[in-house]
Design brief:
This protein has 240 residues and is α+β, with helices and mostly antiparallel strands. It has a domain at 85-237. It is 21% helix and 13% strand. It has a three-stranded antiparallel β-sheet, with no helix packed on it. It has a two-stranded antiparallel ribbon with strand order 4-5. The N and C termini lie far apart (62 Å). Residues 220-240 have low confidence and may be disordered.
């Protein structure tokens, strides 16, 4: 129960504080938050720490790969995240399953050599949805361009270049998934910027057709480099 007009107090965890998911916590950091009560509990023999891999769950607890069985009344699963690109959806082209790791991300929203596929990779060091909003705007401009000139297929074509991991994050859940994610290049539009200012200038204010997209199914006039709605024009009246 709480008094009228007073906000309810939430339980406070003194051992494990919040940390950014993109920054893995070191053992020293965890130790400072765990001490002194946690270490005192271990020294008194009321708790123990076991480092191993879980083979399976049993009726009484968990069986480790070492063969040891740990008895447990309650099991809290906290083994980390596993990223799933496209939410785990399997993408295929002409009946062949797509391996995203073999492709390069274009603007963080399309894949090289894959027609008519769009997704969104947001910012990893600020609000994720800021970048998603910019990419959605750009994708709508791309659709409008295709509709205006009768294109039914759009394929990003990557030039020969060095590549790097798609996400530059040291967290374990990202590092474990890098071999399942597409890569990125060394220069825009194949290199993603994590700056919103750059995003507004390059994505919102930049042209739709930039020489890296191949269109087919055209009917009508060709050679136009962009289609830009007035509401999406870049700042300061600069036209592209």
């Amino acid at each position: 129960m709480t008094r009228s007009g007073s906000a309810p107090r939430r339980p406070e965890c003194r051992w494990f504080k919040r940390s950014e998911p993109s920054r893995p916590r070191t053992a020293l950091q965890c130790g400072r938050e765990f001490a002194p009560a946690g270490f005192r509990t271990i020294l008194e023999g009321r708790a123990s720490v076991v480092t191993d891999r879980i083979r399976t769950f049993t009726e009484n607890g968990v069986l480790l790969e070492s063969g040891e069985e740990l008895a447990a009344d309650v099991i809290v699963t906290a083994t980390g995240l596993n990223l799933k690109l496209f939410g785990g959806i399997t993408v295929s082209v002409d009946g062949k399953a797509l391996n995203p790791a073999e492709h390069v991300a274009y603007r963080g929203m399309m894949l090289s050599g894959v027609p008519n596929l769009a997704f969104a990779i947001g910012y990893t060091d600020s609000s994720w949805t800021l970048k998603v909003g910019l990419l959605c705007e750009h994708f709508c401009r791309l659709l409008a361009h295709m509709q205006q000139y009768g294109h039914d297929t759009c394929i990003p074509v990557a030039p020969a270049m060095e590549t790097r991991p798609l996400l530059d994050i040291a967290a374990g859940y990202v590092q474990r998934s890098l071999d399942q994610l597409p890569c990125q290049g060394t220069a825009f539009p194949w290199l993603m910027s994590m700056s919103y200012t750059d995003g507004v200038r390059l994505v919102r204010g930049g042209p739709v057709v930039d020489g890296h997209l191949r269109f087919s199914g055209a009917r009508g006039r060709e050679g136009v480099t962009t289609y830009c709605r007035p509401a999406l024009r870049p700042p300061n009246g600069v036209a592209h």
